[in-house]
């Protein structure tokens, strides 16, 4: 993972570099009190140490993305007619089956009456045909014709009723009336768009991920999303694409956030923090970092022989209390104070912080 780009960490590392450059000038005046040994000429420095043990850290992949509505529906006319009533305005919240608008009835009720009359007529003819068949005066072909005419009359009634139902336009989903294309008096035909509804609960956060991490992202895993106002909310991985983009060779990934009040809208920038794997790492204070002679970041520890050991490290992440370091043994006796004045291989006197307190 990349080195976190926070100002706090940058300032700390800059401070460490400055101490490293100045240590050669002021080391003689700034070293802790030296302790002499009667049996040895070598002088030892006293350093403060603390036992550090690796903990489980959830490694996170940070991606730049944006919010997207759960679904977006364009409502279209299913019949023709004049718009006689409009019951909603743009930006209004509606529920499923909420009446949005209505078309003029025109002659639709008359068509239903006409179809009903024809149905009654065909039912009577059908009954008469069956009676004649029982008496032997009706051929099978005539019975088939009567059945077909009756079914056709029933279908005509259903079509007329459906045509009347279609003049009332209702919301198929809950959401917000994002766009309304018609006003009272407009004439519409089948297929004409009338309104666009968007459902923002839950809101989706969409980003693109490299194939390198694709196998480590699991649907249902909980992560975090940082919104434009720097607020952080919990989210779940809801979708991982199976087809790469032809230009970027990346895969779509989505997380979902509960959004019952529709406070999060579509199209704003968001940062996805995706859980990809759990690793062991040490959580330490940034002040324990040192620079090796080659300029690499490290921490210094004391081994069982009270000799200084320098471990090159990799910064994996940050917390409010410290930073996560990788590349270290499971347990180390970390030098917390005095690491600026000792070098790898040097014998020291280790003073346990917890023991002293």
Description:
This protein is of the alpha+beta class and 357 residues long. The chain has 4 domains: 7-57 and 280-356, conserved putative lor/sdh protein from methanococcus maripaludis s2 fold, CATH 2.40.420.20; 61-71 and 200-277, Efflux pump adaptor protein, beta barrel domain (Elongation Factor Tu (Ef-tu), domain 3, Beta Barrel); 72-100 and 172-197, OB fold (Dihydrolipoamide Acetyltransferase, E2P) (Beta Barrel); 105-166, Helix Hairpins. It contains 5 helices and 22 strands. The chain has a 6-stranded antiparallel β-barrel. Strands 3-10-8-5 form a 4-stranded antiparallel sheet, with no helix packed on it. It has a 4-stranded antiparallel sheet with strand order 7-6-4-9, with no helix packed on it. Strand 16 (289-291) and strand 17 form a beta hairpin. It is elongated, with a radius of gyration of 38 Å. The two termini are 37 Å apart. 20% of the residues are buried. The model is unreliable at 1-5 and 25-41 (pLDDT under 50).
């Amino acid at each position: 993972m990349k080195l976190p780009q926070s100002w706090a960490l940058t300032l700390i590392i800059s401070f460490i570099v400055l101490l490293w450059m100045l240590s050669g000038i002021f080391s003689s005046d700034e070293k802790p009190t030296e302790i002499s040994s009667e049996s040895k000429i070598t002088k030892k420095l006293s350093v403060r140490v603390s036992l550090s043990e690796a903990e489980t850290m959830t490694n996170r992949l940070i991606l730049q993305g944006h919010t997207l509505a759960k679904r977006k529906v364009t409502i279209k006319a299913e019949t023709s007619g004049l718009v006689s009533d409009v019951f909603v305005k743009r930006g209004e919240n509606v529920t499923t089956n909420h009446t949005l608008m209505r078309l003029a009835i025109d002659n639709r009720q008359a068509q239903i009456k006409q179809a009903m009359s024809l149905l009654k007529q065909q039912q009577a003819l059908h009954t008469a045909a069956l009676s004649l068949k029982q008496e032997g005066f009706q051929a099978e072909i005539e019975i088939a014709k009567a059945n077909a005419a009756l079914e056709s009359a029933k279908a005509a009634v259903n079509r007329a009723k459906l045509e009347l139902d279609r003049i009332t336009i209702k919301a198929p989903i809950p959401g917000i009336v994002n766009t309304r294309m018609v006003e009272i008096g407009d004439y519409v035909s089948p297929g004409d768009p009338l309104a666009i509804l968007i459902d923002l609960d839950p809101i989706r956060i969409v980003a693109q991920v490299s194939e390198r991490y694709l196998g480590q992202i699991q649907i249902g895993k909980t992560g975090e999303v940082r919104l434009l106002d720097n607020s952080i909310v919990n989210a779940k991985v809801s979708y991982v694409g199976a087809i790469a983009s032809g230009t970027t060779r990346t895969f779509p990934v989505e997380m979902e956030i509960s959004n019952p009040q529709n406070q999060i809208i579509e199209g704003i920038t968001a940062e996805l923090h995706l859980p990809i794997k759990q690793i062991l790492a040490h959580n330490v204070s940034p002040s324990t970092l040192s620079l090796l002679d080659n300029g690499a970041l490290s921490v210094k520890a004391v081994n069982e022989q009270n000799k200084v050991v320098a471990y090159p490290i990799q910064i994996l992440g940050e917390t409010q209390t410290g930073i996560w370091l990788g590349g270290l043994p499971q347990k180390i006796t970390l030098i917390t104070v005095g690491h600026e004045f000792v070098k790898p291989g040097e014998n020291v006197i280790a003073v346990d912080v917890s023991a002293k307190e």
